[in-house]
Design goal:
The protein has 193 residues and is mainly alpha-helical. The chain has a domain of 89 residues: Rna Polymerase Sigma Factor, Chain: A (Orthogonal Bundle), CATH 1.10.1740.10. Helices cover 78% and strands 0% of the residues. Helix 2 runs antiparallel to helix 8, helix 3 packs across helix 4 and helix 8 packs across helix 10. The longest helix is centred in the last third of the chain and has 25 residues. The chain starts with a helix and ends in a 5-residue tail after the last helix.
């Protein structure tokens, strides 16, 4: 049986090893979380939950394997599980509040149309985000992992659990889709001739 002194040192060793393996990927994980949840607070929550789960299951991590892929897999699975929970939770609606909101929307409709046009005109510089949002999730995830986070094909295949050929084809299709979506914008702004 371990005494308390041994328990403290093993826990400290686990913490040190975890910091060495997992914390170096924090910024890449946060960037990816931000892309899939599109809200800084939700991305921070997802990141925190990912690190909590990773630390809890760190004993199962095989030393010498790809810690980056392991952390991204935990983040992706956590996101999917949270999404499933949200989907199952029924939404409670206060119908009086909805009716009031609907009435306000109806009266402000003409004013809002003008504001919407201004808003969308200001968003033209953010065309990439709009185009990324149009990508199917499977293509977007692989594309972001490769081009934004610098994953190799092998790391992506291991994280998403798909063949390397599928990784390559999704990246190719995502790039082709983005080219089609953004070529008009690029020509308009002088990026393409």
């Amino acid at each position: 049986m371990k005494n308390f002194k041994d328990l403290d040192s093993s826990e400290t060793e686990k913490q040190v090893n975890f910091k060495d393996e997992a914390l170096i990927h924090q910024q890449a994980l946060y960037n990816y979380a931000l892309k899939i949840v599109t809200n800084a607070d939700d991305a921070q929550d997802l990141l925190q939950e990912t690190y909590y789960k990773a630390y809890k299951s760190y004993d199962q991590f095989e030393k010498g394997t790809n810690s980056k892929a392991w952390m991204f897999m935990i983040l992706k699975n956590t996101f999917i599980n949270n999404y499933r929970k949200l989907k199952r939770t029924p939404v409670k609606v206060d119908y009086d509040e909805v009716e009031n909101i609907f009435e306000n929307i109806k009266t402000d409709q003409t004013h809002n149309n003008q504001l919407d046009m201004e808003f969308y005109n200001n968003l033209l510089s953010d065309e990439l985000s709009v185009a990324l949002a149009k990508l199917p999730a499977k293509m977007r995830d692989v594309f972001l992992m490769y081009d934004l986070n610098g994953f190799t094909y092998e790391e992506i295949a291991e994280t998403v659990i798909i063949p390397i050929g599928t990784v390559r084809s999704r990246i190719y299709r995502a790039r082709r889709f983005l080219y089609k979506e953004l070529s008009g914008y690029a020509k308009l702004n002088g990026y393409l001739n």
